[in-house]
Amino acid sequence: MAVGLQAKSLTQGTDAVGAVDWNRPGRAHLVGIGGSGMSALARVLHQRGWLLSGSDVNLDRLAERLPPRTLLHAGHAAAHVPPEVDVVVHSDAVARDNAELAEAQSRGIATLTYFDVAGRLMEGRHGLAVAGTHGKSTTTAMAGAILVDAGLDPTMLCGAAPLEQPDGGRAGRGTAVLVEACEYRANFLKLQPFHAVILGIEPDHFDCYPALAHVEEAFGRFATRVPHDGLLLAHADCAAAQRVTASASCRVETFGLSDGCDWLARPRAVDRGCYEFDLICRDETLCAIRLPMPGRHNMLNALAAAALARHQGVDPPQIARSLGRFRGLRRRLECVGTRAGVTRIDDFAHHPTELDAALGTVRQMYPQQRIFCVFQPHQTSRTARLLDELAASLHNGLRPESVVQRPNRLWITDIYRAREGLPAAGEVTASHLADRVRRRGLDAAPLHEMDEVARDVAARIEPGDVLLTVGAGDIRRVLDQVDSLTRDRE
Predict the structure, then answer these.
(1) Secondary structure (H, E, C), the chain
(2) pTM for the complete prediction?
């Protein structure tokens, strides 16, 4: 059985039971409402007039991020499903034997995944989807900001919150529905895009894609979801992305940082990691764009967002203005501030390619400062399969530029076991990754428990240093703990 088909069977929705009408307000219960995508969906439904309830294991500060009047429940129990509800929506992080899902199904209530609903919201609308192993959230948010500024009033579902916004959801009155299209369990096959982006493809999500060929099979099927009169924008410098677009029946355009692309970003200048570049379409320079968000990788994300927006009719000057004031997303090289003389940055990177980008950018931003990096690996399966690649990224990103420079420091916390249950004997651990890093000549602290790591960081860090927390789990807790431990130094 093809991986894409197998993944689809795991997430099949059952709204036929309840015949949900998504064009009029109803009542929805969201299981796992604290997830980034689920909270964005809650925002969209609330703005469309739906009454909402939801549950999650951790309600810490969740109420302030969710729409008003959302009824929240701590933990999961059958009694949390309201007596009157039209649909129960759950995230992929929720176990299939969840008590609330079982209750909904026993009562004949429509039960859907987050991406089931995203696909329903695209029906009859102008669907836009952004896919790829890296950069989906940023590119989606950038494209959304351009469309909003241009007055197109899109509906948006983004898996990360732009800075100064509670989440990545928005219910617009325009025809466009813009969705971050995740490949996990082939969820993006539930979408119906008219225009789509593929940023790049690498091995990842090893719990459902054993090899790159399986990832490409799913992306190839995603490419065929775009109708023949639609458009697919593909990363020119990614061989896998170019392979999967061969199955597309629609027009395909390429974007990248090297000559020969349909859409090209040509750098003009870089200032402390922030790029200025010319936006070029088929040898015609459309405008110059200066990004306030640092990172060479974000120049590529901005290029894809600009190309997508241009195909929606947005003029180049508006694209430049919107991207020129897009400050970024939470947990994407987010500068949390300075405390006790220490610059604090938080990033979501958990794949070697993302680590390369994050560490390289921070070194561009702070070339003379010492970096204290605390990395939290995400999932044992990913860590095991990419052990050497992760070690190489950490080593290359943190090794000193010269022998006279004060050495950067690295801590690797225990692995964040998303969806993996209890550890088993013989599994890869944080200490295995730390050993691989040391073999390459970079020192890694022998501490892995998060509280111990925070205390050690607080004891060693000095004014002028940069503290970078990296990972897709709860690693940001280290920033809070170090802040608490060093507060008396201010």
Answers:
(1) CCHHHHHHHHCCCCCCCCCCCCCCCCEEEEECCCCHHHHHHHHHHHHCCCEEEEEECCCCCCCCCCCCCCEEEECCCHHHCCCCCCEEEECCCCCCCCHHHHHHHHCCCEEEEHHHHHHHHHCCCEEEEEECCCCHHHHHHHHHHHHHHCCCCCEEECCCCECCCCCCEECCCCCEEEEECCCHHHHHHHCCCCEEEECCCCCCCCCCCCCHHHHHHHHHHHHHHCCCCCEEEEECCCHHHHHHHHHCCCEEEEEECCCCCCEEEEEEEEECCEEEEEEEECCEEEEEEECCCCCHHHHHHHHHHHHHHHCCCCCHHHHHHHHHCCCCECCCCEEEEEECCEEEEEECCCCHHHHHHHHHHHHHHCCCCCEEEEECCECHHHHHHCHHHHHHHHHHHHCCCCCCCCCCEEEECCCECCCCCCCCCCCCCHHHHHHHHHHCCCCCCCCCCHHHHHHHHHHHCCCCCEEEEECCCCCCHHHHHHHHHHHHHC
(2) 0.93
